[in-house]
Design goal:
229 residues; five-stranded parallel sheet; 40% helix; binds coenzyme A
Length: 229
C-alpha cells in the first residue's frame, strides 16, 4: 500500500514540476494571452486550459526535432498536438516570440511559414500554400499582426508589420506595413491610420465565374456568326 502511495506521489510531483517548468519557460506567452484575451481570468487558467498555448508548446518541441532532421518524430509530435488541440502547425514553421492563438480550432500553419513577434491568430486561420510548388510556399508574417477568424493567407507573400487581416479575408498578395485588409480577395481599407476608399459593396461584387461564363458566351456567339450551324 505504502509503495503505491509513493508511486502516486512521485507521478503527482512529476506532473506539478512539469507545469512549473512550462510556466517559467512560457511566461511571456501566458502574459500575452492574458493581455490579448479579455476572457482570460488568470495565469493558471491560461497555463492549464488554453489550447493555443499547448499547441505552441508542442510546436517548440517538434520544431527542435525538425531542426535536428528527425522529421518523423517532429511530425508525430505535431500530429498528436493536432488531435489534442485542433491546431495544426507544421514542425518546420518558424514562430517568433509572444505568439498567441485564441480559441484555435481549425488553425493550419504550413511548413515554410515564418511568423514574427507579437502575432495573434484566431480560430480557422490558414497560413497555406497555393499549389503543389516546392520551396518557400507559405506566407511570411511580420511583427505585431492580428489575423482574424477564418482568414486565409496564401502563398509566398509578406504581411507587413502592424497590420490587421479581417475575419474571413483571403489574402494572396503582399501587404504593406500598417495596413488593414478585408474581403475576398483581400483589399486594403486602412493604411498608416488613413482610411482607403474602396468599395466594400459585397452585393454588387463581380463574380469571377459569371465573368468567365459571359466571356465564353461571347466567344461562342462570335464563332456561330463566323460559321452558322
Ligand atoms: C478587419 C478589422 C480588424 C477591421 O477593424 P477596423 O479598423 O475597426 O476597421 P473599420 O471599422 O475601419 O472597417 C473598414 C471597413 O471594412 C469593413 N470590415 C471590417 N471588417 C471586415 C471583415 N472582416 N470583412 C469584410 N469587411 C469588413 C467595415 O464594415 C468597414 O467598411 P466601411 O468602410 O464601408 O464602413 C476587424 O473588423 C476584424 O475583422 N477583426 C478580426 C476580429 C476577429 O476575428 N475576431 C474573432 C474573435 S473570436
Amino acid at each position: 500500500m505504502i509503495i503505491w502511495l509513493k508511486i502516486l506521489l512521485f507521478i503527482l510531483g512529476f506532473i506539478i514540476l512539469k507545469w512549473i517548468i512550462i510556466a517559467i519557460i512560457f511566461r511571456e506567452e501566458i502574459r500575452t494571452a492574458q493581455k490579448k484575451d479579455p476572457a482570460a481570468k488568470s495565469f493558471l487558467e491560461v497555463l492549464l486550459l488554453y489550447e493555443g498555448l499547448h499547441a505552441l508548446i508542442a510546436h517548440r518541441i517538434a520544431h527542435f526535432f525538425y531542426k535536428c532532421h528527425l522529421f518523423f518524430i517532429a511530425r508525430l509530435i505535431s500530429q498528436i498536438a493536432r488531435h489534442m488541440t485542433g491546431i495544426e502547425i507544421h514542425p518546420g514553421a518558424q514562430i517568433g516570440r509572444r505568439f498567441f492563438i485564441d480559441h484555435g480550432m481549425g488553425v493550419v500553419i504550413g511548413e515554410t511559414a515564418i511568423i514574427g513577434d507579437d502575432v495573434l491568430l484566431y480560430q480557422g486561420v490558414t497560413l497555406g500554400g497555393t499549389g503543389l510548388e516546392k520551396g518557400k510556399r507559405h506566407p511570411t508574417i511580420g511583427n505585431n499582426i492580428v489575423i482574424g477568424a477564418g482568414a486565409k493567407v496564401l502563398g509566398n507573400i509578406t504581411i507587413g508589420d502592424n497590420s490587421y487581416i479581417g475575419a474571413n479575408a483571403v489574402v494572396i498578395k503582399d501587404v504593406p506595413p500598417n495596413s488593414t485588409i478585408v474581403g475576398v480577395p483581400g483589399r486594403i481599407t486602412r493604411q498608416d491610420g488613413r482610411k482607403i476608399d474602396v468599395s466594400l459593396d459585397h452585393i454588387h461584387i463581380l463574380d469571377p465565374i459569371m465573368q468567365k461564363i459571359e466571356e465564353l458566351q461571347k466567344r461562342i456567339e462570335g464563332l456561330e456568326k463566323r460559321r452558322p450551324l
